[in-house]
Amino acid sequence: MSYIRLEDVTRRFGAITAVDRLNLSISRGECFSLLGPSGCGKTTTLRMLAGFEDLDEGEIHVGDRLLSSKKSGYYLPPEKRDFGMVFQAFAVWPHLSVYENVAFPLRVRKTPAAELDKRVREALSHTNLTDAAKASPADLSGGGKQRVALARALAINPDVMLLDEPLSSLDPHLREEMRFEIKDLQRRFGFSIIYVTHDQSEAMALSDRVLVMRLGVAQQVDTPVNVYTRPANKFVFSFIGLSNFLDVEGDGTNFKTSRGGLPLPCAPPPELANGPSCLACRPSEVEFTGEEGLTGVVARKSFLGESIDYRISIGEQSLRVQKGRRSTGPEPGETCRLRFIRPLWYPAD
Ligand SMILES: Nc1ncnc2c1ncn2[C@@H]1O[C@H](COP(=O)(O)OP(=O)(O)O)[C@@H](O)[C@H]1O
Ligand SMILES: [Mg+2]
Hints:
With about 350 residues, the protein is an alpha+beta fold. The protein has nine helices and 20 strands.
């Protein structure tokens, strides 16, 4: 059931529409990611949820509470929204101890001393910081500082956590470890997560559902599996995972590659069969066949460790093909034949 609702949420900065009529509905306990390239409006969306940013249009509700409404000019201030928040920069205060950092939001809320102490100790224990309570965050590693930020967000026992690229300043190994810690905390406390990232693998690994954004506009809201296997458009296809696009021309019965006129071994759906269209496929979903299939010439072959990466010229276009490292395949300069496993089709640009 929908818990967090954004209705036609819009935010403009001068001529730029940072977020353009965004509609979202997120369930209680769901982990939902906002994914897209830098500048697509992820942080602005999160800041509007948090109450740091006004709306130019639309409304935000959580449960039966109205948080922001342009129409009625209503804005609940951030501290009354009771969201946990963790941002990209290590926003911890170096002049306060770890304990006091975590206690801060509770002191702001005038939580009684005994209750405050209990909550801080619990948050520290859940983030493995009990032994660091008296330390200064400045003496902790990057991962440690980000744990302090997490503990501080947990201390108020929020039912929504807003996380804006919380792991992007950590090294890759630690980033993966912290993903599991965040999921673990979510399982224990049951809060909803809205997670901002430009890293598609992070979004895929963490989320129940993902919103892919481009230039402030929602492109697709779906499960990680569906955004990968059934991208709504070419942008989503190319943003999630490795992609190949091949321009194709058709007359209803015959289909050839553009700029080379090579016959295709497959056909677009009827609505795209008359005229130009675009075939999309992952490099791992192209197969070398013996005699049949699309004709190409191997322009390059590179050994990547786990896989072998081919660049195949298809007339004046090119395709990337990836095969397991033990596979056998053609050599540079050789002609090859190709077949597509589950190609997808999009209208031509
Ligand atoms: N305070 C601001 N003033 C002017 N432009 C802004 C401001 N905040 C964000 N923007 C612009 O809005 C767009 C979306 O930014 P942002 O939400 O930060 O994107 P993301 O978090 O996806 O990288 C960008 O074009 C950015 O330059
Ligand atoms: Mg951002």
